[in-house]
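in:
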């Protein structure tokens, strides 16, 4: 089961979701990457609890390191787009769970309609009934309330 998440809090990883089936579209706050665009240094499982005098620097080029997340205005990593598109285009997605999202942030917002075009179903879990996502099932309320019930028989 492929999970495409916009969360960058590492929750899926900590919940034991297999990395090979996870696309963290907006990166992971607990990973670092170099600010030098010509450097490919990355570090995973970084402890973000450090003081301002401890700003981490790249061991390869000495540039500053930054959280490996996608900030507003930055592009989603190309390999994440490719992995998600491939899953959708090969009809491996028959159900999309939209959990607490506005479905207004692209490219993830576009994936819902792409799955629907291919016959997939949509379930929305959201405390806000004003969501604009057209869905087959709507669960009004928090994910902690509905997901255990909805996924109990899967
Ligand atoms: Zn570097």
């Amino acid at each position: 089961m492929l999970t495409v998440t916009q969360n960058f809090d590492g929750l899926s990883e900590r919940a034991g979701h297999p990395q090979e089936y996870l696309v963290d579209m907006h990166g992971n706050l607990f990973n670092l990457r170099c600010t030098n665009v010509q450097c490919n240094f990355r570090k995973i499982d970084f402890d973000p609890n450090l003081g301002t005098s401890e700003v981490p620097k790249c061991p390869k080029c000495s540039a500053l390191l930054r959280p490996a997340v996608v900030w507003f205005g930055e592009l989603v990593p190309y390999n994440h787009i490719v992995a998600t598109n491939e899953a959708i285009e090969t009809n491996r997605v028959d159900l999309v769970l939209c959990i607490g999202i506005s479905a207004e942030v692209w490219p993830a917002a576009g994936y819902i309609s792409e799955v629907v075009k291919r016959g997939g179903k949509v379930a929305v879990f959201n405390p806000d009934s004003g969501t604009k996502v057209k869905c087959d099932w709507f669960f009004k309320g928090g994910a902690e309330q509905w997901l255990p019930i909805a996924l109990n028989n899967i």
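note: The radius of gyration is 18 Å.
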